[in-house]
Amino acid sequence: MSSTQVGIDLGGTAAKSGRITHTGEILAEKTIDPGFADGPERVLDRLADLFRELGGGDALGIGVPGLLDRERGIVLTSPNLPGFSGLDVKSGLARRTGLPPERVHVENDANAAAVGELWLGAGRGERDALVVTLGTGIGGGLILNGQLHAGEGLGGEIGHVVVDPRGPRCGCGKLGCVEALSSATAARRRALAAGLPAEHPGDLVLLAQRARDGHAPERELMREIGRDLGRGLGPALCLLDLRLYIFGGGFSGALDTLEAGIREGIEERSFGGRAASVRLLRATLGPSAGWIGAARVAIAAG
Amino acid sequence: MSSTQVGIDLGGTAAKSGRITHTGEILAEKTIDPGFADGPERVLDRLADLFRELGGGDALGIGVPGLLDRERGIVLTSPNLPGFSGLDVKSGLARRTGLPPERVHVENDANAAAVGELWLGAGRGERDALVVTLGTGIGGGLILNGQLHAGEGLGGEIGHVVVDPRGPRCGCGKLGCVEALSSATAARRRALAAGLPAEHPGDLVLLAQRARDGHAPERELMREIGRDLGRGLGPALCLLDLRLYIFGGGFSGALDTLEAGIREGIEERSFGGRAASVRLLRATLGPSAGWIGAARVAIAAG
Domain check: are B242 and B293 in the same one? Predict the structure, then answer.
């Protein structure tokens, strides 16, 4: 008999969720406002209601941004989820849903999205890939031998590989991280510095379109941003001999305009002429990758 | 009943070998001159003789420097083994020893050494580690979840992670690779540039001793070399959240003088305050790591 799981991708402004069978058939999807203003206990109440409204399931997986104790299902720190630092999400949701605690799984959101893309998205059937989320920041999830590889919890953090020790300061405090050079935020800063209009996040879509249409300043800008991203991926090729990179997140819509630069950057920071064999794919699950991956994590662990 | 394996670590000037049980009991060890001047077929003859002289075994593992087709047991390119590029080592040794081909395993030498150190050396009982060989160059082998992770064959190549894109040129053609900054060769070059005596490889031992004895120029030199090495390890922490690094090779005798710098470099190129939790160990199997690991690879595959 087919088992069903519920996955939730909990962000600061939305909880995306769905119910799915272990063979990947999506039975329901729903997005709610988690309402963080009412405090973390009320958020957990709403997530448990969501679980029931979707029809319930044999297990529940939840992806959250931040640093976790994944074993115990406790959020250690989460700057984006008010009140969640220190929260025992596993016990809280188990109690509210009636699931045994071992059927509730808490995972980092970027890792969950990576699992989702490898299961049903761009990486379907693949064993090894780095899934890079290009948004206001840059996150990542690493899959090796078909398994999520998160080390003690912070694996796949491609965003903080240093590309240029003399580069701009990153939010993490270091200089020249990939995130400080190639995130959507960094792209807008670089566009403005180049005299191109990029006051609003949506402007990046227009800049990418102009690059596509052959306008030189936009094309060169995207190439440079891509090159720094590729330089950040070089160590993954050196350390892991990894050939598949999947890009999700809002800025991944510009992947076609970044690709030439990404390949140059990888070539520059790896060796053995492997850059040509590297595959760069755009994620295909969009904003559903997180909840689908969270559900998959629950299946894998169950 | 206990099965026994023979491992060989084939280098340009010596073939180190031994016979070992699957539980790690060393039954015999022997080192010979492979005699590359007589051509690759004669080298394989000698290695088969060596297998017999050691007492034979249920399987044979051999580590070779270079790029391999590990599945088929063919050396693709090996600058250090004259005549071996393109050689079908698996078939050649199977025919000569009478072993079925599926019992002969060919592995990259740095990978084999990593497997050896995790099995019986400094990484005994560990699941995840990067084993770094500090010699005239810098090689590496990556173990994740207790398994060698070589990707399509070139994994663990920490030596070619770029630390400083404005740094000195590496043998691979790029600028500022770890190998160009922190190998024994680079260390001697940097010592000479600092006005310290380092004409001969053995001089590094004296420089390390003077650093240990508190002489400021040597101490600062070792710290700087260590710092660049640590900067190269930073991406491994970002990508893999890897906390254990084991150092072998001739220059690893200076690890105690490099350590402060290594930790500074890791801290500088990672985030989350994890540098303090990183363990830096010196390899304990010395020149036997390669053949022991090669034998272990044969056991694992058998």
Answer: no
CA-based nearest distance B238→chain A, Å: 5
Asked if B239's CB is within 8 angstroms of A154's CB, the reply is: no
Length of chain B: 302
Whether residue B201 is contained in a domain is answered as yes
pLDDT of A40 strictly over 80: yes
A130: nearest CA partner in chain B: B239
| Helices assigned H by DSSP within chain A | 40-53, 89-97, 109-120, 178-182, 184-193, 203-212, 216-240, 255-268, 289-301
The 3-state DSSP class for residue A112 equals helix
Joined tokens for residue A50: 């969501």
Are B190 and B238 found together in one domain? Answer: yes
Instruction: Give every CB contact of residue A182 below 8 A, 6+ residues apart in sequence.
Output: A134, A138, A225, A226, A228, A229, A232, A258
Strand partners, B61: B7, B105
Distance of CA B34 to the CA centre of its chain: 19
Q: How far is residue A10's CA from residue A74's CA, in Å, rounded to a whole number? A: 14
Q: How far is A11 from chain B (nearest CA, A)?
A: 21
Contact B240 A155 (CB under 8 A): yes
pLDDT in tens, B219-246: 999 999 999 999 999 999 999 999 999 9
Convert the pLDDT of each residue in A90-141 to its tens digit: 999 999 999 999 999 999 999 999 999 999 999 999 999 999 999 888 989 9
